[in-house]
């Protein structure tokens, strides 16, 4: 079977899930949602089919499982969001279409990811610029104490979602060129490899940037995600665990320092350590998240059956469509449903890293590994926050959470991964020549 | 490089395994703890999704109904159409403030609580859990008359059907409108007069001379005295080593017990109490239900036991140092609830057989089928039937020609006893307890007014009279 036919097969479970999901919500909440629910399902499947045909035409040999996995996650997200608020679901479907358009544009315009290597400093500058945006007066927006959003007119978006792509592209390109040099030029002291200061510099710069984010954007989650992706790419590029250990130590030291000096970081950590001290106030989110999961148990309350919307417009847990959507999934689909979602991310990571393994040039390898790592880390940071593995922060669950920026940025991430994959899996004659530097 | 990528994948696998492990911990192992967590409002909110049963007055008037809020999910809110009139006995049920009184006592019935099997069966049949309706014995007319009788004065009225123990009126002033609980709970809790306090079962008052009915029961039933026994009614007289006076320091000389009850002669009943002794007095108090919480269908921590209380709030017994002569006339450290005094009247009225008091006599499901029925049952035999007859005649004399004439009804003979306990200079706790008609009593009542300048006979007796009249002459009788 060809890769594309396997992809088509992969969409079958997605279609079953989306149909069953919408039907279940419809059956459980007849009074609230119209019978248009099945139409939504059909439109979603139509869109998936369109993407499939597009990939069939442009990236014939690319990995056949990545897209169905994303479609699966998006389907779960859409059903859950629909169950929370059908207006939001309609908007999310709109973002889904926008994501597909950007996905197609990325593939059509870029053709070859290796082009990106040439513009790495421009891309890095864009990335850093994006991260600064939320603190610019007039357009920056503060949500839950973190500066994650930007409001421009009627449009609001989360620049971190796009910045993560820029930073990974830069790191892959930079470390592809300098990584070996960092190792070769380093000295060994007491069996520990220490790179020269001029090679060590960039590491410190990225560390500084993530510390800056921690304090300036006030987002521990994004900071963790960025720095983790950096360490992942650094490790793959150099193979030196000591670099990673050094990086982790620096990050931990920095986090510890700011946790004791900057009040909002401190507060996040206090809530994490003891959410029950103020379960109706600062600890409300995490407490409600845990209550939702406990309510779900092994098999969940069933789609549309859990207690969520309260009279007067309040919701438990709060932010059920974004930060805490994993808790809602655990509530309605139980431990099994939630574990299924985590498994889908794990499978995505497996396919993503496989793309990296199969790639032949260093940049593509690092890019695929970096994109996969940042995607997986994002899922870990938010699910970890919701399950109290780490402090709860406001990053989105890729493809599942409500949010335009998240959907669109992750579609671009998927496009880049598929393009790397196409390059690696196509028969040699099909491949485009390596771009000259 | 590929080995490093595989290592990285290994790390991701480990991290994701951690996520599933934590989810498992919260969803399965820690689930019960979280469910019971104080901050978890889910169980309360889920109960709000059940349509609670109605609470209905004896005449079919609906005292509590539901208002649906929201479509999906649908929540129910309680509405109390009877407002303050039934505030105390019915109580309230709101997520913000929990529940009290009948709403709390009958919560399982009102929410249609079922065993596992039944609820599973209903789920299979697609039936929604529904609450059962609770039918009270309370009479709206009597409630209204008692309320009007108190006319804003702080006090309480309890009326009981002696043969069955059915409570026909339970009124405490000031009262509150349960509909205001969600918005004004704080105000109500701090309001002067404590409107949230149900004085019928939660306030301990000195019973004054109404206690002489208990003393008379002990005197006659123990065989040590009869209605014609003569005791010296001089004033003052040393009781418990301290001089005791009659009202207005009136000296009655040697008189019968009947005369002594009719005129409420303190020195006679003080001496009777001393002669009976602590043991006998406490025995008869206990027979009436003193010294423990009344066996009424209200939440146990919302009702109060009547008895002799030490300063530290401990209930004293016959072995403690107590001036029993003053207990016998309703002084000392005696604290009684209006419900307890109504039970005293009820016990005498029903030939010495005290029936267990109750506010609810039937629970029905939505289809009108009776789920549960409360049959009248005897709580205790307080005295011999002959004693009750003698005591009833003595109490009838009180209303005919004694201190309780204000309770007399046209064409119906009433038995009763007044009480006026001094709680300050010219500040009294006024009481009347009684029953009617004397031959075949159908209502027993206790009425009391707090901190009044009037007396039991002038202030409390007219209230008791109008309540008895309503219950005997009205359609409710």
Structural write-up:
- The complex is a heterodimer of chains A (437) and B (477).
- Chain A has 437 residues and is mainly α.
- Chain A has helices at 3-28, 37-58, 66-84, 86-110, 120-132, 159-184, 197-216, 220-238, 241-261, 263-273, 284-296, 325-358, 362-386, 404-425, and strands at 140-143, 146-152, 155-157, 187-189, 192-194.
- In chain A, the strands form two sheets. A three-stranded antiparallel sheet of chain A has the order 1-2-3, with no helix packed on it. A two-stranded antiparallel sheet of chain A has the order 4-5.
- In chain A, strand 2 and strand 3 (155-157) form a beta hairpin.
- In chain A, helix 6 (159-184) packs across helix 13 (362-386) and helix 8 packs antiparallel against helix 13.
- The longest helix of chain A has 34 residues, at 325-358.
- The two termini of chain A are 37 Å apart.
- Chain B is an alpha+beta fold and 477 residues long.
- Chain B has helices at residues 2-29, 31-36, 42-47, 87-90, 101-105, 107-110, 116-125, 140-150, 181-190, 199-202, 212-221, 257-262, 266-288, 324-327, 338-349, 385-401, 456-473; strands at residues 55-56, 62-69, 75-79, 93-94, 98-99, 133-136, 155-161, 166-173, 230-232, 237-239, 242-244, 254-256, 307-308, 334-335, 353-355, 360-364, 370-373, 378-381, 415-424, 427-436, 443-452.
- At the A-B interface, helix 8, helix 11, helix 12 and helix 13 of A face helix 1, helix 2 and helix 3 of B.
